[in-house]
Amino acid sequence: MSKEFRELLRKVGSGPHTSKNLTREESAQAMKLMLTQEATPAQIGAFLIAHRIKRPTGTELAGMLDAFEQWGPKIPALSSGQTVIVLSQPYDGRDRTCPVGPLTALVLATAGCPVIQHGGDRMPTKEGIPLVELWEGLGVNWRSPSLLATQDILEKTNVGFVYLPKYFPEAQKLVIYREEIGKRPPLATLELIWVPYAGKHHVVAGFVHPPTENMIAEALSLRGVSTFTTVKGLEGSCDLPQERTAIIGLYDLTKAENALTRLRLHAADFGLGGKNPVWTNLVDYLELAQATLNGEQTPLRSALIWNSAFYLWQHTDAPNLETAIAKAEKLIDDGLVKQQWHRLQLYAK
After folding, report:
1. At what angle do helices 24-35 and 58-71 cross, to 10 degrees?
2. Beta-carbon neighbour count of residue 230 at 10 Å?
3. DSSP 279
4. % of residues, the chain, pLDDT over 90
5. Contact, 222 vs 216, CB < 8 A?
6. Single pTM value for the model
7. For the domain 84-347, what is the CATH code?
8. Distance from C-alpha of 48 to C-alpha of 61, rounded to nearest angstrom
9. Residues of the chain with CATH 3.40.1030.10
10. Roughly what angle, to the nearest 10 degrees, separates helices 336-347 and 101-110?
11. Are strands 201-206 and 84-87 parallel, antiparallel or unpaired?
12. What class has domain 3-71?
């Protein structure tokens, strides 16, 4: 038993009237003691559920990120020094709507924007489809390459992925607690803003509830991250919805005033509205994805163009969303995204 961890547990787990928030340093130490398994299983489980009930603060998330920074892996920086876009998705996956994140990454990569994603296998509590299985179905293997090999793939294809069980086994050992406590722990929010990359980057973090967005903004601000994006996306991902308003936060903390630009975008205003494509199973999804990359008119096409266009608008020289939509359509219809996909298959196999 860790006596040090017990004191931190007492602080967050004393109930609604006497519990206290951890300092950033205390939160980092708590995360370290969990990653190194110096805290016992009983202590870890108690801490995670107590912290969920209390609700984490931005300061506590910043401390947890400090620990991940120390213990977690990092893909070495691109030789070009180019900014990498980090597209997040909850680690416990998706089970209601079709994820477009991997396909969006391919479009961005084709346009010269490097993208990194990260995650593990099927994970409690949702047990939804994880990114690594989607990529695997597309013929891209992210389970095997080393970090240096991943950097090489990123250099050559503008796409990279950090697979949690291989690269960060200390964090992977905490996955079992999700099933045992039956609830998403604060780690689920942490994973949306963790960046396993050593170079310049731009985080895009999905969220569901407004308090989570505030927490994310506070944590990243404390960590010295000046620009980042938040998206009230599908199932907590950064996939923009089509059938409702896309609520987006563009943060630039270098500005003394108006550090947050709030966007409310409607896909229907750009001819891309409609129902969000429904998730059924991996076989159906892969059939849709491949047809979409072939330039066919599929139920997934408008979702991919809508998402790709937004990120192209934000991260390329596209002056407006209309121009970015036309650019996304052309990249797909000219077969360039398909070529990029096959190039990635060649290097990540």
Report:
1. 40
2. 28
3. P
4. 97
5. no
6. 0.97
7. 3.40.1030.10
8. 13
9. 84-347
10. 100
11. parallel
12. mainly alpha
